[in-house]
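Methods: holo model generation. Sequences were used as deposited, without trimming of termini or removal of tags, and paired with ligand SMILES retrieved from the corresponding compound records. Each pair was processed once, and we did not select among multiple samples. The sequence and adenosine-5'-diphosphate SMILES for this entry were:
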Amino acid sequence: MRDVFRIFFSTGWRQQVLILIVLLTSGIVEVVGIATLWPIIGIIGGEGMPNDHIIDDYIRWALEAVGLPLTIEVLLGVILGAAILSFAFGTAGSVFVGRSVANFGTGIRLQLIDALVRARWSYFVAQPVARFTAAMNSDAERASVAFKSAGMCLVALTQAAVLMVMAIFVSWPFFLGAVAIATVLWLAVGRYMRMAKKAGRGKSKHNLALLHSVTDALTNVKALKAMNRHTFIGHTFAVHIDRLRRATQAETYSTSAMRAIQEPLFISLLLGGLYIGHTFLGMDLRVMLGSTLLLKRIADAIGSVRANYQRVALDRISYWQLQNLLAEIRANREALISGNLPPLPADITLANVSFSYPGKQVMQHANLTMDAGRLTTVIGPSGAGKTTIADMVAGLHAPTEGTITVGSTPIDQLDMAAWRRQLGYIPQDSILFNDTILNNVSLGDPRIQESEVREALVAADAWGFVSKLPGGLNFSIGVRGSLLSGGQRQRLAIARALVGQPRLLILDEATSALDQKTAQEIAKSAQALTGSRTILAITHQALWVDAADAVYEIRDGKVTMAAPALSGSA
Ligand SMILES: Nc1ncnc2c1ncn2[C@@H]1O[C@H](COP(=O)(O)OP(=O)(O)O)[C@@H](O)[C@H]1O
Ligand SMILES: [Mg+2]
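and the model returned the structure below.
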């Protein structure tokens, strides 16, 4: 039950307390309506206005206080008024709950996205993507359900409490009977409640596992299909799907069982109570009818507490996983200092730099200088650590030892945000969006003019093919750019990096997918771009060695100057 409170009040006290007060008022008004039925039953039963029960006294007192006569018309009017008021408060409460649930669902997603984009890169790359997509979709959805159910559970709980208070006024034995009935109804479903909690955990776990495998498989499906191994994909999912099926089954079973057990149990307890009341306590028909009505409402309220509590039990795991994930991502927030930024382009120097990933040494005591306004090429076999160098220069990874300086500023004292705005980075595996050429190059940045996009495309040697496409800049390139060739996609990626007029351009295997002639043309255009910008080309292609002002080779963790600088071409 503690979870119910913690989840519901996690978004702040004030609004949630207001919701509970509104719904509590609705419950109290309803009780007034039920209490007013009490004397009416007596009047209709031909006993006249009865005064043998404490509730009659209360009603007489209340009507006198507001100066209304005690007639059946007035009593019926009170019941009608109470019903309308209770409905109005109840509806207002539901609207508030709905709004608070919607705010919770969007709020938690926005917080996640915000935390994610601010996280350290080294934390980010170590996480499976499915972890975040699952959090954003199913977990956020289920956490919203848990949040809503927690609210409804508390509402039903306050309602039950109000009705119980009324039961005290009816009579002590009656109150004790109601407590006994509520307890038995609650305990009877304990087994199913535990089942629901377990099913909730299982669902969450296997859903994530399934998402992991599906994401992995679908991103690799081309190779699998080409080798006719795609039919095996299903096997890796089958286990998770089966476990998911079992958890869902347990969830459905526990829900239906709880509902099914409730009704006959309530009827038997009620019949027993009526028998005892009639035979041993000498209760009259009126009190019995009124009590039955009240008991039914108490049972309904308890049933609602139970159903919503079960929903919380099923989905709370998602709520807590989300909270933990959010806390974890926030703890890994990248510390961006507002240091300084030297005039660019400036020499970039790696001095005595070592770097390791967790459990893997990539380079030791590397020395390397990228002269300002020149083209530096880094070659080396795959896996040697070329991309790692680029990532360190971009401030995505910090060296484990040694220093990187831009001009004379150590990289950890740079205004990192400003530094990165001066970078054009073309990663090894550029992701293009299912959008127009224009938006793929500008990345939706409204400050970038169409003319700048065109210039970048020209510089990336892409304008030739773009201008021939139907719609030109507004041509939509398909999912991950599937309507373009590999070379065309890569040229778009280069244009995307060039459009911000970067002072340092990093090309990570940028021409690997292009034919020799086009690659040479791009290398030549790159040479033309030096002077006002520094270029770092990471590649295994010889043509970039020819185009470079300085060449370094990285191999077995060592960086060596591979060839003397060619004639300065800036
Ligand atoms: N995030 C990472 N965690 C652990 N090891 C990594 C990570 N990224 C790369 N590596 C390893 O570090 C080495 C250097 O990687 P990388 O710089 O990408 O090589 P290159 O670009 O020269 O092919 C490789 O052996 C690779 O397996
Ligand atoms: Mg690489």
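The longest strand covers residues 360-370.
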